[in-house]
């Protein structure tokens, strides 16, 4: 997750929105080859949400679970055929002892020289891994939210596949229409927007208020409550 966050600033400079400069040319070559052959390419995009507070969502009702809402929103994007949170599908093939995020505690370290600008070292509970993708029991746990979506290759090919004529019922080649070879990069920005709507709604539901100022005050009081909890 840290690598994804660090590489986010560079993705808009990449034609395929990829922070990995070694993978980028290979991806572009694969897409170009598919284009020359009249084919299309699918792929996986990742959405990472940082700064999400603890406690968004709910475990009490199926349609209030934050991961369920995010999955529904991302799954609604055209051509998306799979959504996973955190470690996702690969965790199904592993043992529980290897995928659950262990909890640790670090005592706060106050600044012995208070007149110095150096702040105190923050302490508290933390995890070394984030296989849960920032959501446990349908509720955000303070870690970055990580959502991945699998996008199937588009069906509109310049190399048409076999079909059947609706009138004659005879074998028929599908029509050749305009097709984007690989829409994954664009779909990633849509995924970010859909996830942002869900998190904003969950934030509003938890902290309420009739104005942005009231919502901000409620959120600030909640942060103080967590410090003293």
Description:
With 229 residues, the protein is of the alpha+beta class. The protein has six helices and nine strands. It has helices at residues 2-11, 23-36, 66-75, 96-99, 184-207, 212-228; strands spanning 43-49, 80-85, 103-106, 124-127, 135-136, 139-140, 145-151, 162-164, 171-173. Strands 1-7-2 form a three-stranded antiparallel beta sheet, covered by helices on one side. Strands 3-4 form a two-stranded antiparallel sheet. Helix 3 (66-75) runs antiparallel to helix 5. The longest helix has 24 residues, at 184-207.
What brief labels describe this structure?
single chain; 229 residues; alpha+beta; three-stranded antiparallel β-sheet; two-stranded antiparallel ribbon; 9 strands; 17% strand; elongated
